[in-house]
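Lab notebook: predicted structure, single chain.

Context: the supervisor wants predicted structures on file for every construct in the current expression panel, including those that have not yet been purified. This is the next one on the list. No modifications to the sequence; it matches the entry in the shared construct table.
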Amino acid sequence: MKVMKLQAAAAGMVLAKDVITENGQMLLAKGATLSNAVINSLIHKGLTSIYVIESDAASQKEYSEEELAAVKEECRQTLLKRFYRPPATGMMQALFDAILEEMVVRKTS
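Prediction complete. Output recorded below exactly as produced.
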């Protein structure tokens, strides 16, 4: 399993986890194969990253759910230290979340 930026996703990739909005609505189920139309739709909905099944598992480390959670928490703590104060508004929280996802993608890629 690999977390990746949605902009870098390609048609034919297979989801390793369900795609769920912040409101809890499931958009795509684990195992779904991405198409260009689906990728564009997810981008339009504001999603920034997804989990996909790696086609070349030997080239990169595979992360368990626990390892990914630990990486995300480590990145969250680092990011909190860089913010003047914790995000208080919806816009600041959205910015924080986007930066956090980017940090996780870079750390696990």
